[in-house]
Amino acid sequence: MKLVQCKSSFLRNCFAAIAVISATAITTGCGKDKNTGTGGSTPIVTVDAAVTIAATQNHQTIQGFGCATVFTPPGTTLYTSNEFDRLFGTGNGKVGLSLLRIRVASDEPWRAVELNHAKLAIQNGARVFATPWSPPANMKTNNNIIGGALKTDSSAAYAKYLNDFANYMAANGAPLYAVSVQNEPDWNPSYEGCQWSAAEMTSFLKNHGHLITATKLMAPELVNNNQTYMNTILGDNGAVANVDILGTHIYGGGIVENATAKSLNKEVWMTEHLDTNYHYTANINTAVEIHNCLTAANFSAYIWWYGKRFYGPIGQDGMVTKRGYIMSHFARFIKPGAVRIGSNANSRTDVLISAYNSSDKKIIVAINTGGYTVNQKITMQNGTVATVVPYTTSELKNVEQGNAVTAVNNSFSFTLPAYSITTFVEQ
Length: 427
Description:
The chain is of the alpha/beta class. The protein contains 11 helices and 18 strands.
């Protein structure tokens, strides 16, 4: 499919350097005997680290973690109910996603497919939002769903089109949490798409956004988190009044916070990204990316591209992948409505730590990107913690539950394996 080929080739260049650097780090002086402590004569290297969690320092509300269905890529069959359960279920061995991104399709057959996807996600407790890749052809300057722009005199009709889609979903048992104006308006692909300048998007939101009443309105879902584009919208009070969620992707763009959005109390969601590299190092890089999206950019949601793909949270065979298990360290335990809380810089910068208040429990996620074990001390400041249960993923483990750890004076220590991610769940 053109969409997959274009997106994949675009990203291979972006991730090639990261993959080479990371692979070198894994194979240079830190082999399996350092990761597992078995075999070989190389001694295990253990270092100490300490971090303090600021229990009363509140940041953004987390709305969830998700994936997209939107199209069926080559070699991938339609989803089954069991596969949706693996993606959106919250039990052991499941990813625990809570957001599904579907496509606003102009053709009835795909609308029926996406309606079924939405129903299956909702049955598993997830929320659904919808993104159009293009307005209907008759509303565009080139009368084609590929290329072109929205006709100026079609703006009201397009707003009605989006609102009608939300009503269609609700009437058929799958109400939307939000509908978006456009996928990647700042990108001119060879597949289905539509270009919007920042001024055009701002004008649409200001003058026609109020016509979308059936659900929340999202915009602009940029390809690369273009801050100039985003700030054009945020600089117009009329546009700001009509948009509920700011969406962006991070293809080639920085994982950065928009200070204006924060000052206006507008949530920013990262609604699409992927890495076609499925090797273990790339999966750890995904954990780092999620951490950075939440802590550096203060995004309220993180949505992966295809849910079912060889590089996705479940593979072509429908089973949870290593990337899926790693994503579950956030998705399974950090519930929608959780609030990220503060932490100071860890004494070892290669161990990344973030913390959350979720359903009256503190959740702490620790990512060890180094090739050695780390004796990590975690102290809760201005808050209490008595006992936590650790769940660890490494090359040889998949969200393996460990023994409960008892804190002393609101502080506890845990040994993090090399190249691993561990989630601590307060009891």
